[in-house]
UniProtKB/TrEMBL annotation:
Keywords: Heme, Iron, Metal-binding, Transport. SUPFAM superfamilies: Globin-like. It comes from Halomonas koreensis. This is Group 1 truncated hemoglobin. The keyword Lipid metabolism does not apply. Its cofactor is heme. Transmembrane segments: none annotated.
Length: 125
């Protein structure tokens, strides 16, 4: 077991911010889920708000200093009717971003485990 936190292994505040930028850009390019993300381009303030929530969520959930003050997973995804294919497409984008940023395989697996633990809170709520 490593003595560094997941937050540190993800690159701390700067690393998480870069990951969020990469993940959101990938979602906007991903044909399976881009329709859910492209409207944010028309509302830059809302896009930054969403990115901020994601940065805080990743920081708080990985042992970092930021507190997540956004909605719960079920509240944030309620009514979206996200299916398994969309969930997996988003997860693929996240894992690819981690890989592009040189995040080690063990840390990627840890992030994958966290993402899977949230799956039921996201799908079809």
């Amino acid at each position: 077991m490593t003595s560094t936190t997941l937050y540190e292994r993800l690159g701390g505040e700067r690393g998480i911010a870069e990951l969020v930028e990469d993940i959101v850009a990938a979602h906007m390019q991903n044909p399976r889920i881009q329709a859910r993300f492209l409207p944010y381009r028309e509302d830059p303030a809302r896009l930054e708000e969403v990115k901020g929530h994601l940065r805080d969520f990743l920081s708080a959930g990985s042992g970092g200093p930021h507190e997540y003050r956004g909605r719960s997973m079920p509240e944030a995804h309620r009514g979206m009717n996200i299916d398994e294919a969309e969930y997996m497409a988003a997860l693929d984008d996240i894992l690819a971003a981690l890989d592009r940023h040189g995040i080690d395989p063990q840390t990627r697996l840890e992030v994958l485990g966290i993402a899977y633990s949230l799956k039921e809170e996201i799908l079809h709520v």
